[in-house]
């Protein structure tokens, strides 16, 4: 026979998960009008797009395009695939602005662990990444707030670059996709923890997320110049940060729901995560030499 106490605990656990999920979704509506704006996501998107405009313009000028019309024409020619006559100039510009290049990192240019996540090759590259970031970042920022969104994005982006440094030493790498995979990983954990709030235990939602991840990694195996090591580094670190910092609400003694993963409760873990990321970078540099 089923133990009634076990059944009661299971029912209570399901109710707690459902309350946590609903609280996470509705918390956005309790904020002020300005606080509801996903400032972190918009600043990253606009800043990244502006930086791409600068690097694309300089790459076009490097091959002889100086008028506005010539620059736009040159950029449009490279919108999907970089033309052979533009490849060297674009690589030079991206390296100047901080692309991941192992020998330069080994020379002490450590800013190249973070700057690549804000750099992109062409219009297709930046367009797809920023559309994905808007679709996912706006929603996640409503769940976690500005600071946690930026923390997850930056840490997973840095770890994706470190992973690329370690496993793809010959690749000059740029792009926000590693950090976006980090957001996907964090959201997967949020769904996994709250799976009892979904029909069929969240099975179909989790399968859909796994399909999206698998398709994107599969594309990286088919298309050239796609750094899947960075994607995997961002995804796996996103799992960890999602477990630590995605919302999880629990009732206090007065039955008021509180997010126990807020940074004011988890700042020591956030500090350890940052220190752990720095240690990972040091190990990669040391073992890479």
Content of β-strand: under 5%
Morphology? elongated
CATH architecture: Up-down Bundle
CATH class value: Mainly Alpha
Within CATH, the superfamily carries the name Rhomboid-like
Helix content: 55-70%
- Following the backbone from N to C, one meets helices and strands in this order, namely HHHHHHHHHHEEH
The major beta sheet can be summarized as:
2 strands, antiparallel
Strand order of the largest sheet: 1-2
Tally the beta strands: 2
Average pLDDT confidence is 90
Distance between the termini: 62 Å
3D structure, described in words:
The chain has 289 residues and is mainly alpha-helical. It has one domain: Rhomboid-like (Rhomboid-like fold, Up-down Bundle). The chain contains 11 helices and 2 strands. It has a two-stranded antiparallel sheet. Strand 1 and strand 2 form a beta hairpin. Helix 2 crosses helix 4, helix 2 packs antiparallel against helix 6 and helix 6 crosses helix 7. It is elongated and about 70 Å long. The protein starts with a helix and ends with a helix. The mean pLDDT is 90.
């Amino acid at each position: 026979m089923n133990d009634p106490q076990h059944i009661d605990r299971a029912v209570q656990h399901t109710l707690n998960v459902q309350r946590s999920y609903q609280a996470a979704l509705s918390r956005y509506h309790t904020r002020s009008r300005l606080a509801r704006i996903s400032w972190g996501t918009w600043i990253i998107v606009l800043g990244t797009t502006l930086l791409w405009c600068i690097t694309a313009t300089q790459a076009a000028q490097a091959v002889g395009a100086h008028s506005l019309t010539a620059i736009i024409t040159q950029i449009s020619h490279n919108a999907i695939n970089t033309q052979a006559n533009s490849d060297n100039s674009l690589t030079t510009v991206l390296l100047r602005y901080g692309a991941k290049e192992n020998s330069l990192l080994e020379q002490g240019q450590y800013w190249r662990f973070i700057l690549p996540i804000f750099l992109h090759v062409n219009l297709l590259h930046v367009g797809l990444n920023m559309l994905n970031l808007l679709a996912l970042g706006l929603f996640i920022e409503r769940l976690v707030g500005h600071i946690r969104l930026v923390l997850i994005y930056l840490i997973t982006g840095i770890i994706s670059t470190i992973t690329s440094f370690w496993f793809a030493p010959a690749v000059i790498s740029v792009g926000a996709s590693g950090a976006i995979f980090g957001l996907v990983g964090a959201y997967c954990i949020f769904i996994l923890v709250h799976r009892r709030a979904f029909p069929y235990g969240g099975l179909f939602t989790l399968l859909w997320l796994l399909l999206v991840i698998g398709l994107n990694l599969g594309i990286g195996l088919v298309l050239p110049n796609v750094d899947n090591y960075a994607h995997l580094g961002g995804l796996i670190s996103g799992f960890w940060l999602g477990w630590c910092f995605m919302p999880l609400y629990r009732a206090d003694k007065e039955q008021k729901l509180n997010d126990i993963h807020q940074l004011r409760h988890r700042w020591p873990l956030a500090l350890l995560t940052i220190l752990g990321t720095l240690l990972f970078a040091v190990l990669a540099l040391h073992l890479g030499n």
